[in-house]
Write a structure and sequence with these properties.
331 residues, alpha/beta, 2 domains
Length: 331
């Protein structure tokens, strides 16, 4: 049996499978490839069966979203390492070798992310992960190669191998044993921020999360839920607050949540001034949903949450006040 499983979660994505599955099949001889289908109503499953008989198919009972969709599908995947890959990812030759070498040579490394470049502009990093992620004290994510909407050109500045705080769910490598020990993604998140929450829980248990710049993939981004979709705004804001509730050390939690209320309010006003009323409403809905779910998620807190999790106090201040637009200018 191969040591690594490449698992592609799919929902009505036959066009993406037609475009991107060929590169994964071609450049992944070390892996068993799975398509985990969230009960698609298009020709996704038929397409895979007809054109790629070596690809394993897992059929989920419903459209569980990203988080629970993977949790359900991975019950049937026995390989030692998981590569959770979005259906809009194009991989490159030998993309798995550096990842496998790291897992084999570094037992404490539990999660790995490759270099993620923009499929539509391949000289630049892609929004969802770039060269590895961090968060500030208030839970706002940023990446080496991407701060908010500012994307850096890939000039080889992140061709390294280093520890990070979170790895992108667009192309996410994790040990099978660690995934199970952490009980996988939080299914309540549905999608967005679930990979940061999982990495945070791994961090609390002293696992190492790494970026490996020797492995490169290209990501379309927004192929399943576009940036302009208010649903994405809702999930990002709500899930970020749930993640903070679950993971911020107790002595800091009230302060962090209070500051987030203020900053989220400012973000809502900004949407209003831009005429994006549906996104303003999405933030309001996110907060009401968070209040309803607060008690339930507070109970999910682990016993050990005393470590410093943030690399920067406020990425909002650095970006908008100090005008730090690239990662290397932050420190």
């Amino acid at each position: 049996m191969n040591k690594i499983a490449v698992v592609i979660l799919n929902w009505n994505g036959v066009k993406l499978l037609e475009q991107f599955l060929p590169s994964i099949v071609k450049y992944s001889p070390e892996a068993t490839i799975y398509v985990a289908d969230n009960t698609s109503t298009d020709r996704s499953v038929a397409f895979v069966k007809e054109n790629y008989p070596t690809v394993e198919i897992i059929i989920n009972e419903s459209n569980f979203g990203f988080a629970k969709g993977y949790n359900e599908a991975l019950k049937f995947v026995k390989e030692e390492y998981y590569a959770l890959v979005n259906s809009d990812i194009e991989v490159t030759e030998n993309w798995l070798k550096p990842i496998l070498e790291t897992f084999e040579n570094e037992p404490q490394t539990a999660i790995i992310q490759p270099k993620i470049l923009d499929f539509k502009n391949k000289k630049y990093f892609e929004y969802a992960g770039a060269a590895g992620g961090y968060i500030d004290e208030y839970g706002y994510p940023f990446c080496r190669g991407r701060i908010f909407d500012t994307l850096e050109k890939d000039n080889g500045q992140y061709d390294d191998d280093c520890e990070i705080f979170w790895a992108s769910g667009a192309c996410f490598f994790i040990r099978n044993s660690v995934y199970k020990d952490l009980n996988g993604f939080d299914g309540e998140f549905f999608a967005h921020q679930e990979e940061i929450d999982l990495c945070w829980r791994a961090f609390n248990k002293n696992h190492i999360i790494k970026y490996n710049g020797k492995s490169t993939v290209y990501h379309v981004g927004g192929a399943t839920l576009n940036e302009s979709n208010p649903r994405k705004t809702f999930l990002n804001f709500r899930n970020s607050l749930l993640m903070l509730t679950k993971n911020v050390p107790g002595q800091s939690l009230l302060k962090v949540l209070f500051v987030r209320m203020i900053l989220d309010g400012i973000a809502g006003i900004r949407f209003l001034l831009q005429g994006k009323f549906s996104h303003f409403t999405a933030i309001l809905k996110a907060h009401f949903s968070f209040y309803q779910l607060f008690s339930e998620n507070y109970k999910k807190r682990e016993k050990i949450q005393s470590k410093k999790y943030y690399k920067l106090k406020s990425i909002v201040y650095s970006y908008y006040i100090n005008n730090d637009r690239v990662f290397q200018s932050l420190f």
